[in-house]
Amino acid sequence: MKILKTLLLICIFPLLSIAQEKGIKFEHNTNWEQVKAKAKAENKHIFVDCFTTWCGPCKWMAENVFVEESVGDFFNENYVNLKIQFDETKNDSEDVKSWYQESKRFTKEYNVTAYPTFLVFNPDGELVDKIIGGNEAEAFIATFKNVLLPENQFLTVKKKFIANPSDLALAKSILPKALDNKEDELIDLALNTIIKQSSKEELLSEENMLSFIRIAEGGVNNKAFEYIYNNKEPFEKFMLSKYQFPINDLLAFGIIKSEVTPQLYSGDEIDFDALSKNLSVKYDKIDLSKALESSRLKYLLNKKDWKEFVLLFDKVVENNKNISANQLNQYAWTFFEECSDKEGLKSALKWSKLSLDKEPNEAALLDTYANLLYKLGDKENALIWQEKAVNAASEDLKEELSANLDKMKQGIPTWE
């Protein structure tokens, strides 16, 4: 079974509308012009929750944050509040349907592409900030309290910076927000100003180093990557002290993202030996061996070259005694789902058993092991291990693992 990480920012689950006695009071049976008129008359900013019915974090915010009394007190006092649904379903109310065209305009005009996105307009109806992703109640209030001040509003500061891109203070102010909103051109412009006008000591402040690291993770075609590459030592000390993570591995990730990842999904053949030689010359300060090894594994999985994958991954496991149970389980489960080759499945069973040696009571790992036994025809032992998985499962997993157990008992495949 796959081990899934639940992200707060962006995910996919249905959103259910809920009645709110406390919390944020959203406008209903209105239109955009009326909302703007109310905001202007009351001298309030406008808070717009952009959501979809398939967005899990949207549901989480609606059920856990918007209903909080403290959240309601703050937003009702300072904002005119509006929810706009950005998808269309057969169960939509007439109120929701009346916003269909407006939601399309918002998507295009304000580039709403991730959910939840929160838009803030000033009392004159001008967009001044855009925040992607939710948060816990206290932090959420702090964010939107901060946004009420013009000097903290992303789009307000952006306009000022674009008009005066040599302003160092504005460049420093806009860079974190530009990163949050993934505005690459703005990031480059701000970064260029910061590098040109700051001393080396200033560039190595914690604030700047954190920004540089975030940018360099995205690839090699930016000044942050270049600066870190040529100043590895202070960044190495910073990364190890703060995150226990080598700067080499972060830069290697950026190199792979720019130089290798596009090729992985192009469908073209990749000569990894030649690629390794070329990249080692081009980026001679970085050890790319582990990153290229991981890329080669992904490449072989994409090609469904099970035999070559097994040969390579067995070497990885043999040479890395600290390999995580999660990684072992990830590849074992992929083989269970996609591979029909008996020898390949036997190798996956071996990896699965190694994961259980590391974490013997983890339900997801037990489920993987049982399913591999079952697919290999060992129903008797599969049932034993699947019983263990069900008994070890948390309540949210028990139903799914019990369904697998029932299928095994009935002789029904647990794979597609």
TrEMBL record:
Alphabetized UniProt keyword annotations: Redox-active center, Signal
InterPro entries associated with the record: Thioredoxin-like_fold (IPR012336), Thioredoxin-like_sf (IPR036249), Thioredoxin_CS (IPR017937), Thioredoxin_domain (IPR013766), TPR-like_helical_dom_sf (IPR011990)
Superkingdom per UniProt: Bacteria
Domain Thioredoxin: from-to ranges: 15-149
Signal peptide range: 1-19
SUPFAM superfamilies: HCP-like, Thioredoxin-like
PROSITE patterns: THIOREDOXIN_1, THIOREDOXIN_2
Name by which UniProt lists this protein: Thioredoxin family protein
Organism of derivation: Sphingobacterium bovistauri
Lineage: Bacteria, Pseudomonadati, Bacteroidota, Sphingobacteriia, Sphingobacteriales
